[in-house]
Amino acid sequence: MTRVSMLNLVPVREGQTRAQAVESMIRLAQEAERLGYARYWVAEHHNMPYLVSSATQLLIGHTLSHTQTIRVGSGGVMLPNHSPLMVAEQYGTLETLYPGRVDLGLGRAPGTDQMTAAALRRNERDVSLNFPRDVRTLQRYFGDAGQQGFVCAYPGVGLNVPLYILGSSTESAYLAAELGLPYVFAAHFAPRMLDMAADIYRREFRPSETLSRPEFTVCLNVIAADSDEEAQHLATSQQQFFLNVVRNSRQALQPPVESMDGLWSPSEQAMAEQMLACSLVGGKASVAAQFAELQNRLRADEVMAVSYIFDEDKQFRSYRLFKEIADGV
């Protein structure tokens, strides 16, 4: 049985308000809890009108308050946008309010364009190179009282909030391995280096107080339905979403269409399909076969699924089918 989790970017569906998109986020989290998913993460993005995930820690707190048992966390906090002290205080507060249920995934990218990243930081200096040092600082802030200096995170000291290194390249794999932290690869939009990153992480891993062995999670797209034909139809919403990314057209999540022909050019299709290469799409038997092939190759400890499905009931159905599939592998 493979452990499965969910990632949510909190998209706004066509016809929804942003408040309704947050309500959809909560309903999906409650469904994840009912289905027995391990964790539910919210990603950080900025200056994207079709996503409502800019104030990630607020959405995480809101989700925790509307669920009972499921772990909730960041997928992730884009650390260059924040001071480690502020992150430690925020997530230390969440852990204090909801003990044993908070995860802190950490990313090196800004989660936005460079102009917006500069506005977030209020200066033009690229601080992404500080990422390894900032992760170590967070480890100290959450560590025992004896590890602290004059500046401490209250609450935060001694809480040992679990940290995860997120990445879409091999660079993050080396860092996660060096620090002995769990590693989550973003194959749902950047699958090109997936196998290489997994191999590097496992080969270079150094046991730590956190982990004695590597713990690798792959994040991928999943659209499961009662038939291959239905799944392919539902997947056109996902294809339109990634076309949106290619064009930077900033549209809400669209309902499915009969065909993508005429909606994208051959070059746009190639770019979108490259980003979508790590996707499981089909009826239950087809997705089960795709998933078994992936796991035979990758041996992921956990799979984090993203599902861009317009109809919420069909999205719930997709996650239900995927949980059944994963429980059987």
Q: Keywords, please?
A:
329 residues, TIM Barrel, 9 strands, alpha/beta
CATH superfamily: Luciferase-like domain
Approximately what portion of the residues adopt beta-strand conformation?
Answer: 15-25%
Largest sheet: 8 strands, parallel, barrel
For the residues shown, what is the average pLDDT? Answer: 94
Assign the CATH class: Alpha Beta
Number of domains: 1
Give the number of DSSP strands.
Answer: 9
Helix/strand/pairing class, anyone?
A: alpha/beta
CATH topology: TIM Barrel
**N→C terminal distance:** 5 Å
Shape: globular
Give the % helix. 40-55%
Detail the poorly predicted runs.
none
Strand order of the largest sheet: 1-2-3-4-5-6-7-9
What is the tally of helical segments?
Answer: 11
CATH architecture: Alpha-Beta Barrel
SSE string: EHEHEHEHHEHEHEHHEHEH
Radius of gyration: 19 Å
Walk me through the structure.
The chain has 329 residues and is α/β, with parallel strands linked by helices. The chain has a single domain, classed as TIM Barrel (Alpha-Beta Barrel), CATH 3.20.20.30. The chain is built from 11 helices and 9 strands. It has helices at residues 18-35, 56-65, 84-97, 114-121, 131-142, 170-179, 194-204, 228-247, 266-275, 284-298, 312-327, and strands at residues 3-8, 39-42, 71-78, 102-107, 163-167, 183-186, 216-225, 279-283, 302-306. An 8-stranded parallel beta barrel has the order 1-2-3-4-5-6-7-9, surrounded by 8 helices. α6 (170-179) packs parallel to α7. The longest helix has 20 residues, at 228-247. The model has no long low-confidence stretch (mean pLDDT 94).
